[in-house]
Automatic annotation (TrEMBL):
<protein>
    <recommendedName>
        <fullName>Transposase Tc1-like domain-containing protein</fullName>
    </recommendedName>
</protein>
<dbReference type="GO" id="GO:0003676">
    <property type="term" value="F:nucleic acid binding"/>
</dbReference>
<dbReference type="InterPro" id="IPR036397">
    <property type="entry name" value="RNaseH_sf"/>
</dbReference>
Length: 155
């Protein structure tokens, strides 16, 4: 990165600078290179669903929440090439927007889908999903077998 910067800067400014000078100035500014934190892109639909879901559960008690099984599935895309991207950030800036990288879905190296769930006192086994997941498969292959192994919620 410093070498690239040192090459580009002379085109913008007449005095030439070395890569070591760039590294020294970045260090003086307490900037260090690191991989950006990857975060999921949240769409307007995600935010709308959150605002519809949250208010109805605002007054729930601990007993109400103990009856809930939180589940999620995640599709991992395996990239073809692991390209290292570096950002420069100060010690406490790792999660600022400038130091994060939004990753949208991409293909190339295949994918794998997993599913899991947690509740107050339990967690499910991690389920590796080999086929496309639809509502019927989700109910018959994952939720219904699981409901028989978890304790029933008491009223």
């Amino acid at each position: 990165m410093a070498t690239t910067t040192a090459r580009v800067i002379p085109e913008m400014h007449k005095p030439s600078i070395s890569a070591q000078t760039v590294r020294n100035r970045l260090r003086e500014a307490e900037l260090r290179d690191c991989r950006p934190v990857v975060r999921q892109v949240l769409t307007r639909h995600h935010w709308q669903q959150h605002w519809l879901w949250a208010p109805t559960r605002r007054c729930w008690t601990r007993q109400d929440w103990q009856k809930v099984l939180f589940t999620d599935e995640l599709l991992f895309y395996l990239p073809r090439v692991d390209v290292r991207i570096c950002v420069y950030c100060r010690r406490n800036e790792r999660y600022t927007e400038a130091c994060t990288l939004e990753r949208d879905r991409f293909g190339g190296g295949g994918s794998i889908m997993v599913w899991g769930g947690i509740s107050q006192h339990h967690r499910t086994e991690l389920v590796i999903i080999s086929d496309n997941l639809n509502v019927v498969c989700y109910m018959e292959d994952i939720l219904l077998p699981l409901c028989g192994t978890l304790p029933a919620a008491s009223s």
